[in-house]
Amino acid sequence: TAEAPLNNGARYQVIGSNVTKSVEVNFVMLPSAPKDLDEAAAALIANNCQSQLDLLVQTLDDGSSAEGNQS
User: What are the φ/ψ torsions at residue 14 (nearest 5 degrees)?
Assistant: First the structure.
C-alpha cells in the first residue's frame, strides 16, 4: 500500500503486480459530491473525464438490461 497526496490536477503512474504496462491516473477535485447521476455525468463532462463517463453509461446500461430481463 502506498500513500500520495491528492491535489487537483495530480497525475500518477500506477502499475499492478500482474500488469506489464503502467496506467496514468489524473485527479480532479470537485467542490462537493454530485447529488445524483445527472450531476455526476455533468461533472465528468466538464472535466473531460470521457473514460469515466463511458464507464458510468455502460454500468447504467448493464443495470437497465438486467432489470428488464428479470420479469
Answer: -120, 140
